[in-house]
Amino acid sequence: MTQNGNISGAQFRDMVAAATNWLEKSSQDIDALNVFPVPDGDTGTNMLLTMRSAVEETYKYNDPNVSTVALAIAKGSLMGARGNSGVILSQIWRGVSIALKDKAAICASDWAAAMKQASETAYQGLNNPVEGTILTVLRDVATTSQQEVDNGITSVSELVEKGMNAAGESVANTPSLLPALREAGVVDAGGQGFYTILEGALHFLRGEIEDMQFRKSRVITGNIPTGNLSGQYVVDDEEAFGYCTEFLLKGENMDIDKIRERLKKKGVSLIVVGDPTTVRVHIHTLKPGSVMNYVCDLGTMHKVSVRNMDEQHEDFLALQKERMPAVDTAIVAVVAGDGLKEVFKSLGAQSIISGGQTMNPSTKDILQAVEAAPSDKVIILPNNKNIILTAIQVENLTKKKIKVIPSITIPQGVAALLAFDYEADFETNFNLMKEAKENVKTIEITRAVRSTKLNDLNIKKKQAIGLLDDELCAVGDEPKAVLDEIISKLDLSKSEVITVYYGADTTEDEAKILETELIEKYPSLQVEMVNGGQPHYNYTVSIE
Q: Which position among 74, 178, 270, 368 has the lowest Cβ density within 10 Å, counted as fewest Cβ atoms?
């Protein structure tokens, strides 16, 4: 810090980078703090990727001014925001940038003002803010920070510590504010993530960088019975395209297996081949510098190539746009599973973004698809409740006219697409599609990723669970039995069609048996069986 205890622009940037690294250590633990025992516990991952994008943006500017760094963090976090938690986090940094406008350094009162503005901006960014979440934690931090400044505190590091302690107490209290958390036996994941970020910032301000390498943040429990925090962490579809990094490494007595093992955690598409004196490495990574720092100690690098795959993807999208025929209104849909992607393409979607449960696309991903769409009018189908807020952010980032259909399931997205009228105008189609999605019931069958009790259901890890219109309502040992239970309780007197999209973990023979049984049980209904290929979900069922 500066001589008077304030934070300079360069220190602010490094503080946020240190906090991001600290968050990375606990991202899987935060992912596990998921109310529903379905494989979508990705809050930690989404917050981490959002923070990474923010940090990367700061290094594009040479100006050490705090105001410039704050603006870069706000921009980077918005463009890299993933899922609801990422979008809220980007709004927090937007508030911070507003409070730090024209600031050359950060004093204690500036930090308190930044937390206050961050809280106000985050609340304003949501149509229906919910207490017992990261919003509550942030507000408690802001309140405590202002009180401490009013009491005469002048040290920024001491103020961050007070805020962090307030965040910890607030996170522990979230189950008392949100019944779903209390019943699931967990604290709010977003609040835990924000606490971790503040903790990482405090370590940096105290000069504890070396200690951070051998420790990680604690998961706050509060006065509740905690569930199994095993969680699930998926990176392939969450990672940005990053950098294709290739080089030849020359040295002596190099251990290829050891190099391969060390580089596994630094990226994907890893290839390590050669002999003890010459090793060829290929890896897709978000941090090529980290890879190079490691191998430089082993030998000398030759024929180094680092290519930005994000730029390559943008060029590809631009080329695809030129090749696509122009339409009056383009449809962009977020879908997971090869079979489901084909369904949406066949129904007229011009652009498909790979994503869904555990694979939330970023604001940038959706924006790229919108810009590549062959029309200045675009309708977006998120098909997942955790992607809707991200999709809405795109409206303010493009000159195109955007509408977001708040579809939370794949069947809702299909129903909306079927209602699209090629002869109708943009507004009419939006209204038709929005209305159509309400006329379908959705059943989803998956496996519990941990044991819990929810909605009066005692659920064991790996049991089959069923959701009706995104509400958990059944549990059993076999997916088909759970599906049968849910359908049997529905009033199908006005229904005409049952469409079953079976997932990647369901065999064709299992699907045929289910189809035969449904036809026999419901002879008045048309039964359709489609190989959706979706991950994690054995069956996604549409009833119309």
A: 270
